[in-house]
Write a structure and sequence with these properties.
The protein is mostly helical. The protein is 50% helix and 2% strand. The chain contains nine helices and two strands; from the N terminus they run ααααββααααα.
């Protein structure tokens, strides 16, 4: 069963792929003990194998949202699968941080580069016209306004890819510019960054006054990479 499966892996929710792998990677790097990188890869693959939807090229938040072909599968109002914007933002931003410090000759690096590029291409396809991704990636029409934490992470990750030569600038830079301009409009005069979905585990609405520290963090991460781009 799904419940039994989650007990057999360490990182049973997709957000964990931001929290742990980059830290373990840095630990392996600074202690010069590459075996920790191999351990990280083992745990990462367990999560990937359970939560990554190869058809949609997105991560389910956890096994509750993995489709099994059953009528009981959780669906969006439009009948599509539930893929949480912030959850996938955690993953692709984690991949950027991971690749930033992973040795170029690491035996499994190609897997992470391929996964990063797959997700980047899919995220680009799903960007709404106004620049901000909605909290549910496959049901954007359910939400009237974009959500800042997921959009911030996507903007950071795509800008990072352009800055580090993994993504084609002519294709991705316009999307980054559009996203950043939209994100900037969500910052209020007192500095507060609104339109951040509150703590949760699946897509929910946000509003101009909703904020969380991780939303501001995603905004700052995005800005730090956008500054490196020439977006004239």
């Amino acid at each position: 069963t799904k419940e039994e499966s989650t007990e057999n892996i360490l990182w049973w929710w997709c957000d964990a792929l931001f929290m742990a792998p980059p830290v373990i990677n840095l630990y392996a790097k600074h202690t010069k003990q590459p075996k920790y990188l191999d351990d990280m890869h083992t745990f990462y693959m367990q999560t990937y194998n359970q939560l990554y939807d190869k058809e949609e090229q997105l991560f389910a938040r956890d096994l509750r949202f993995v489709w099994t072909g059953s009528e009981k599968d959780k669906k969006e109002p439009n009948g599509k699968k539930i893929f949480w914007s912030r959850g996938n933002g955690w993953v692709i931003s984690g991949l950027a941080l991971l690749l930033d410090d992973m040795p170029k000759d690491y035996k499994h690096r190609a897997f992470y580069e391929k996964l990063y590029k797959e997700m980047a291409a899919r995220i680009l396809e799903l960007q709404p016209e106004d620049g901000l991704w909605r909290t549910s990636l496959l049901s954007p029409e359910t939400y009237e306004h974009g959500e800042v934490s997921g959009s911030g992470f996507f903007t950071f990750a795509l800008a990072w890819g352009v800055n580090n030569g993994l993504l084609e600038e002519s294709k991705y830079a316009p999307a980054v510019k559009k996203a950043w301009n939209a994100l900037a409009k969500c910052q209020q005069e007192d500095g507060k960054v609104g339109w951040v979905q509150n703590i949760g585990a699946f897509p929910e609405p946000a509003n101009k006054d909703s904020w969380q520290n991780f939303g501001t963090g995603a905004y700052l991460m995005a800005g730090s990479e956008v500054l490196k781009l020439d977006l004239e």
